[in-house]
Amino acid sequence: MTKVENNKAWWLVLPVFLIVAFSAIIPLMTVVNYSVQDIFDPYTRYFVGTEWFKQVMTDSRLHDALIRQFIYSFTILAIEIPLGIAVALMMPTKGRGASLALILVAIPLLIPWNVVGTIWQIFGRADIGLFGAMMAELGINYNYASEPMHAWLTVVLMDVWHWTPLVALLCYSGLRAIPEVYYQAARIDKASRWAVFRYIQLPKLTNVLIIGVLLRFMDSFMIYTEPFVLTGGGPGTSTTFLSQSLVQQAIGQFDLGPAAAFSLVYFLIILLVCWVFYTTIMNMQKDK
Amino acid sequence: MSNETTIAGRTNQNETIAEATYTQTAPQQPVFSQAERKAKYATWRGRIGLTVYLILLLMPIYWLINMSFKTNTEILSGLSFFPQDFTLENYAKIFGDATWYMGYVNSMIYVSMNMVISLIVALPAAYAFSRYKFVGDKHMFFWLLSNRMAPPAVFLLPFFQLYSSVGLFDTHIAVALAHCLFNVPLAVWILEGFMSGVPREIDETAYIDGYSFPKFFVKIFIPLIRSGIGVTAFFCFMFSWVELLLARTLTSVDAKPIGAIMTRTVSASGMDWGLLAAAGVLTIIPGILVVYFVRNHVAKGFALGRV
Questions:
Q1: Which range in A9-18, A173-182, A232-241, B11-20 is most confidently predicted, on average pLDDT?
Q2: Bigger pLDDT: A175 or B270?
Q3: In angstroms, what is the C-alpha Rg of chain B?
Q4: What pLDDT is stored for residue B7 in this prediction?
């Protein structure tokens, strides 16, 4: 659509700008302010320059959290994206079945995050939960509260359970946008199921998949509530992700300066990775 | 002689062509039905796969519901797929105690406030982005979306101080405003997609007919993108309802969300699992109701109006 040039349109955007700026710019400036000062109490503070940033960059606990975070985010992306596509392909397209499947698939997305944690906390326990009991039945001494590996797997499983529906619904809506003519043409050409997927469905899904990958990456990178409820970051630090170490530092230990510096680095990492993702995918599309 | 051969040759040729087409069409019949059978088989396989997925998906939720109807002694005494000793006691406890059910009311209040605020500010902005070019429009759009990437954990402390200093701490509006940080950009994004699908000519005709901008916007344009507004409201509800970190930080008593109240089930005498499960089940119900209302538009909404 051709757009008319008109700077008066700013008046329409102004309310959005003000309301988001109130919640975004003021707190962000506070964080920047903290990150360069050493604060003892509200009246005693010193300017320390980049000291906190240096400290954050060399803190081995944070490095570990960052590595755990990356492994975690890539694991869940590698599971959720293919699984989500598969579920979307299986969902019925017409009639009551379609509505029902849509509502059922969407349910996990509408559960408060702490309740998701609670559900899995219960479900995974060997004494009162079905999943834990099943694992015990299989002869595995499953205990997410004491075994780091089990805790990690439970958090991944919970995330897959919680967020695959988002990918599935995104893909489902992408698939609905493909005109029936494409499939008819494929039938006439006797295209195989795989060829239909590879040359008709997948290209049409690119846009929603970009949104899906970006959303899932961003949100998994900020994950806090679910592991907090499920494992509290433990056992040890095996499921302590970035948000969790940040909250521990800022509120638990009240190290405002380092926590603020950490916040900024954290935010920049997300922006950077998203930008890299976005431009790579966009360039790949252009090459085609 | 030569004529004959050519004619013969021609007929021969025709015959071979006819034969060729015949041989091509003849086996096509079974191939086609085979493909159909294959497609039917694939649909059945899909149905079975989907059913398995849905069962796995609903199992943890079923377990929670199952548990909410059990007494604590039954929960701890062993596993069973159905409550042996069916009880509504856990629900009675929640509905009979104001400190419990007010949690739901509080959550509902700030979620509704957030939905209304997000829609009111996002509607004109989305219109501006979909219809006009203006200085810094692209940068503005990307800046808005970048707020969706900010981890809430980063903003916890500054939010707490900001809202305390303006006297909004522990009010519903504080949580509603804080959630605008991620909901307003999302609302603008979705609505812009829906609005771009409405042809410009409608705006122009209305202006020629003497409509002023506000009158046109409310009387003509908003009814046109009804489904888009419904979907946007759904997304705002969804992200505000499920968020707890900010909501918990910005409240203490009067506006405390249900998610924060649920931690009360941990006491010195151990966990009150039945009560926890009942409280959890009650947080799922509003979500199911909302998704039921927008089920016909949700597919379009998930593509952010760009389908």
A1: A9-18
A2: A175
A3: 30
A4: 45
> What is the SS3 assignment for B237?
helix
pLDDT at A83 over 90: yes
**Structure tokens belonging to residue A288:** 């085609």
Which stretches of chain A are DSSP H helices?
10-35, 51-58, 60-90, 95-106, 113-123, 130-137, 148-176, 180-188, 193-196, 202-221, 225-230, 242-247, 256-287
Of B46, B181, B292, the CB nearest to A103: B292
Phi, psi of A159 (to 5 degrees): -65, -40
pLDDT at residue B134 tops 70: yes
**Residues of the domain holding B102:** 97-302
The CATH number for A60-242+271-287, chosen from 3.40.50.150, 1.20.1250.20, 1.20.200.10, 1.10.3720.10, is 1.10.3720.10
CB A242 within 8 A of CB A65: yes
DSSP string, A188-257: HTT--HHHHIIIIIHHHHHHHHHHHHHHHHHHHHT--HHHHHHTTT-STTTT--HHHHHHIIIIIS--HH
Cα–Cα dist A79/B196, whole Å: 34
Shortest distance between the Cα of A182 and any Cα of chain B, in A, equals 16
| Residue of B63, B134, B259 with shortest CB distance to A129 | B63
CB contact under 8 A, A90 and B287: no
- How close does chain B come to A259, measured CA to CA in Å? 9
User: For residue B224, how far is the Cα from the chain centroid?
Assistant: 21
- The answer to whether B256 touches B103, Cβ cutoff 8 Å, is yes
